[in-house]
Amino acid sequence: MSETIEIEVIRPVNPAGVSFIKYLWGAIGARNRTVLQEYRRELTRLIQRLGFTLEEKIGSNKLITGTVVLELNNGKPVKITAKDLRIWQETGSFPEAITVELKE
Question: How far apart are CA 67 and CA 9, in angstroms?
Answer without folding.
Answer: 6
